Amino acid sequence: MELLPHLRQARDHIDRQYQTALNLDQVARVAGVSKFHFVRCFEATYGETPMRYLTRRRVERAQDLLRAANLTVTEVCMLVGFASLGSFSSRFAQLVGESPTAYRNRWAARGGPHVPGCYLFMRGVLDPGGTAGSAANESDRAI
């Protein structure tokens, strides 16, 4: 129980930095424990590994963007921190039950207004060249 506040800090860090190339060492450091202990405690507390939590968080944000913004699936993929369109599409379909394109098209068919992507980039809502577009190689112990 004494580790719970530190796990919350690490989870909050993931929530704030989901666009960046997070790795297990960084997030475990936020919690103040070894990465191995962190993974065990995080999963025991939240019911999923830090990687699954991060992936779910990224997919949730992608759903928001696909519903509300006039962006391509590739732009959304990069903005939420995925390194490749293939991994994004497969994870999205696995978690949501349909491809990102089908999801976007289903919401577009409802006729709701979309915020133009150029407006989002101009207003700084999205960071195309900063942290979101620089996802590191996923094999580099990324969580």
What does this structure look like?
By secondary structure, the protein is mainly alpha-helical. 62% of the residues lie in helices and 3% in strands. The protein is built from 8 helices and 2 strands. The chain has a two-stranded parallel ribbon. α1 (4-17) packs across α2 and α2 packs across α3 (35-46). The longest helix has 19 residues, at 50-68. The chain is elongated. Mean pLDDT is 84; it is low at 128-141.
Anisotropy-based shape: elongated
Instruction: Please report the total strand number as a whole number.
Output: 2
Q: How far do the termini sit from each other?
A: 23 Å
Number of helices: 8
Overview features:
143 residues, mainly alpha, two-stranded parallel sheet, elongated
Quick structural summary:
By secondary structure, this protein is mostly helical.
Write the layout of secondary structure elements.
Elements: H1 4-17, H2 24-31, H3 35-46, H4 50-68, E1 69-70, H5 73-79, H6 85-96, H7 100-109, E2 115-116, H8 117-122
Parallel strand pairs: 1-2
Helix pairs in contact: 1-2, 2-3, 4-7
